[in-house]
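Appendix C reproduces, verbatim, an entry submitted by the partner laboratory led by Prof. M.T., so that reviewers can inspect both the input and the predicted structure.
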Amino acid sequence: MRVKVISIPVQDQQTALDFYTGKLGFVKKHDVPLTGNDRWLTVVSKEEPDGAEILLEPSPNHLEAAGTYQKALYNAGIPYTQFDVDDVDETYRQLTALGVAFSVTPTEMGTVKIAVLDDTCGNHIQLVEML
């Protein structure tokens, strides 16, 4: 088995695309119109364009339970997922300069350093650097 696509629930796909590409540096991989305003919209790491895709999933708008789950995680400050970075401190500086809000600033926790950002789409995302 291989991981090809993971989903992140987003409240607005265009806002998510703008944030994930404009702030986090991902690149758009697929953008296929579906029903209504929904799209099969994926982004990938520019360092791994053939790697796992992130589906910017509009599920909170169509499935009440998904929205409830997303909101509960967000309100508890629990990251929906995590992304690995080479240097949390440098990534934090770069993203802060772009106006990205963080709920947890760079913090060492044993063998990792983490920071947690707000993706503007209803999720906390944890950045992780292996020490």
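Residues 5-130 form a domain with the 2,3-Dihydroxybiphenyl 1,2-Dioxygenase; domain 1 fold (CATH 3.10.180.10). Additional entries are available on request from the coordinating office.
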